[in-house]
Amino acid sequence: MAQESYKNETDETECQAPEKLILCANNCGFFGNSSTNNHCSKCFRDLFMHQQQQQQLQQPKLAQKAPTSLASISAQPEPAKLEAGEPSKAVARPATNRCLACNRRVGLNGFKCRCGGTFCGSHRYSELHGCDFDYRGYGREGIAKANPVVKAEKVEKI
């Protein structure tokens, strides 16, 4: 009896294949689904992506066709032109993936110093790369901020 009740329960809960199978509308050989307009999952995804791209291409065209007035164009400041005699203001920074002392590649294991440089394992300590950061002054400032000055009152209260 227990076996019969188990058999009846499993028959009710098993998944059943759909009675009517529909081939994909793109004739790719897979079966389609009515919720995806009779397309298979791959064809539906491709169709959906194509439609999104078309919508994105059409939206900027509408924005470009907006009329612009002559006053708004002339009111915009002109960019400054560099003369041939002026050097560019861009400062050439050293690569952050190389040691400043030996120019060795440091990768992800580079050590950043308080002086602003990146150093390899051999030059990571301030004594080894000639660091110009004032550690003593930095420590004094930290202590001064953490411990405000306490002064006694000049006149005693009665």
UniProtKB/TrEMBL annotation:
Residues 18-52 form the A20-type domain. The keyword Transmembrane does not apply. Residues 56-67 have a biased composition (Low complexity). Residues 56-88 are annotated as: Disordered. Residues 93-139 form the AN1-type domain. Gene3D superfamilies: 1.20.5.4770, AN1-like Zinc finger. Pfam families: zf-A20, zf-AN1. GO terms for molecular function: DNA binding; zinc ion binding. Keywords: Metal-binding, Stress response, Zinc, Zinc-finger. PANTHER family: AN1-TYPE ZINC FINGER PROTEIN (PTHR10634). May be involved in environmental stress response. This is Zinc finger A20 and AN1 domain-containing stress-associated protein 9. It comes from Acorus calamus (Sweet flag).
